[in-house]
């Protein structure tokens, strides 16, 4: 099913500087202040390619920078096709965790084919930006992050053959996450082992959809069936990895002219048990308790007060939300969007997709600050479980946009993929 191949990676050369000065986090979590810091640290930081801001035509400028770097041997292609084993090691709540996967070139398939499976909706503006960058540079600078089932651990066993002491790159970033990269020969058997796998997108829906659009763009301009644009660079991680961590993404509602938080809670009591909570710390503890009990629950904040909303057992969600697939009815985020944001607050799906009255943040303190600074209210969520993500994708369904936040993010710049 999945066509997974080694490739000649585009990598920084020693002349560019230390690798820790050349990489950066994904473009969509970098502030303007952080971007300037990366540029000041090393003029060859990959952020000049991944998040261009300089020049009248920022995409054209990124293409010119990449061309110059190739000419000056700042980056260059490997001589042979290889697989790249990538590991992230990190600490969370006092516990050291890690996960390992393979970076490879994967043949693009339409979602309808059931090989690459999405789990959430996307935002249109981000896809337009990524498409323009892809056309100008002909390169994947970061990977689409996918999960796959590896119950027999055959692929994990291949990945574990890398020598722990012989990584080609290793660095620890500003968040304390250690990144390691190794290579595997093209003859290691991974292509054959992936042949019957489905790939579930964990992070990078925008990049994958953009790659599909770029593939069609290249086909329309005469690209051959075996062109590099028929593939996209992916990081493929076993779903069974104990180091997988998913954080929630919280919602901030803003600019609703007729917002009445008290009335919203009164209306919400038809479906939820509602209780006032003394502080965010206490709310967080309560949310974790509900999560452990498999309860659908989320927090709310407005007018300086916190509330815990926990779904009642009657009427059932099948009765309340018959239009939702059964896999979506198990998700806090789907219930929040359907019952609260849409039904009670009148924020429809198009509004959410265009972020007219809705913002997203992983930082609860930032959400509180936005409300204190004038936003209407914030909603705090528990994380989505990995098995729920797989179930939703397998059923051909999609969660609301920004439903998951896999931590830590994959770093950008260790290896890149030329697609034109």
Describe this structure in words.
The protein is α+β, with helices and mostly antiparallel strands and 420 residues long. The chain has 2 domains: 4-245 and 407-418, no CATH class; 249-382, no CATH class. Helix content is 31%, strand content 25%. It is built from 14 helices and 21 strands. Strands 1, 4, 5, 6, 8, 9, 10, 11 and 12 form a 9-stranded mixed sheet that branches. A 6-stranded antiparallel sheet has the order 15-17-16-19-14-18, with helices on both faces. The chain starts with a strand and ends with a strand. 41% of the residues are buried.
Radius of gyration: 22 Å
How many helices? The count is 14
Structural class: alpha+beta
Strand content: 25-35%
Features:
alpha+beta; 14 helices; 420 residues; 2 domains; 25% strand
In short, what is this structure?
With 420 residues, the chain is an alpha+beta fold. It has two domains: 254 residues, no CATH class; 134 residues, no CATH class. The chain is built from 14 helices and 21 strands.
Describe how the helices and strands are arranged:
Layout: E1 4-5, E2 10-12, H1 32-41, H2 47-50, H3 58-71, E3 75-77, E4 82-92, E5 95-107, E6 116-117, H4 124-137, E7 139-140, E8 144-148, H5 154-159, E9 169-172, E10 178-185, H6 190-193, E11 199-203, H7 205-220, E12 231-238, E13 245-247, E14 250-253, H8 261-268, E15 272-277, H9 280-292, E16 297-302, E17 305-311, H10 317-320, H11 332-344, H12 349-353, E18 358-361, H13 364-372, E19 377-380, H14 386-394, E20 405-407, E21 417-418
Parallel strand pairs: 6-11, 8-12
Antiparallel strand pairs: 1-5, 2-3, 4-5, 4-10, 5-12, 7-21, 8-11, 9-10, 13-20, 14-18, 14-19, 15-17, 16-17, 16-19
């Amino acid at each position: 099913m999945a066509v997974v191949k080694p490739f000649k990676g585009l990598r920084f050369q020693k002349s560019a500087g230390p690798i820790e000065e050349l990489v950066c986090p994904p473009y969509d979590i970098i502030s303007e202040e952080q971007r300037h810091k990366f540029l000041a640290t090393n003029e060859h930081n990959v952020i000049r390619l991944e998040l261009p801001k300089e020049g009248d035509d920022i995409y054209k400028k990124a293409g010119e920078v990449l061309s110059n770097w190739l000419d000056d041997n700042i980056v260059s292609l490997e001589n042979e096709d290889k697989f790249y084993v990538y590991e992230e090691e990190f600490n969370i709540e006092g516990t050291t965790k890690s996960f390992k996967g393979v970076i490879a070139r994967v043949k693009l398939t339409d979602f309808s084919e059931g090989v690459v499976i999405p789990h959430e909706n996307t935002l249109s503006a981000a896809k337009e930006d990524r498409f323009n960058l892809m056309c100008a540079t002909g390169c994947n600078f970061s990977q689409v992050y996918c999960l796959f089932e590896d119950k027999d651990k055959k692929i994990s066993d291949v990945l574990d053959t890398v020598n722990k002491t012989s990584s080609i790159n290793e660095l620890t970033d500003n968040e304390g996450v250690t990144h390691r990269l190794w290579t595997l020969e093209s003859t290691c058997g991974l292509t054959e082992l992936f042949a019957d796998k489905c790939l579930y997108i964990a992070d990078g829906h925008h990049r994958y959809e953009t790659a599909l659009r770029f593939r069609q763009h290249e086909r329309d301009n005469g690209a051959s069936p075996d062109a590099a644009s028929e593939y996209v660079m992916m990081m493929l991680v076993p779903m069974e990895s104990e180091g997988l961590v998913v954080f929630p993404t919280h919602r901030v509602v803003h600019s609703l002219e007729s917002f009445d938080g008290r009335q919203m809670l009164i209306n919400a009591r038809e479906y939820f048990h509602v209780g006032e909570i003394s502080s965010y710390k206490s709310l967080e503890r309560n949310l974790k308790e509900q999560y452990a009990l498999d309860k659908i629950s989320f927090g709310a904040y407005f007018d300086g007060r916190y509330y815990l909303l926990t779904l009642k057992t009657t009427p059932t969600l099948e009765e309340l939300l018959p239009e939702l697939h059964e896999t979506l009815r198990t998700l806090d985020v789907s219930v929040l969007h359907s019952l609260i944001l849409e039904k009670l607050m009148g924020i429809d799906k198009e509004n959410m997709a265009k972020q007219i009255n809705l913002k997203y943040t992983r930082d609860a303190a930032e959400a509180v600050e936005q409300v204190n600074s004038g936003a209407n209210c914030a909603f705090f969520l528990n994380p989505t479980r990995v098995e729920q993500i797989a179930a939703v994708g397998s059923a051909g369904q999609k969660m609301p946009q920004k439903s998951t936040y896999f931590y830590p993010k994959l770093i950008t710049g260790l290896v890149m993929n030329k697609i034109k």
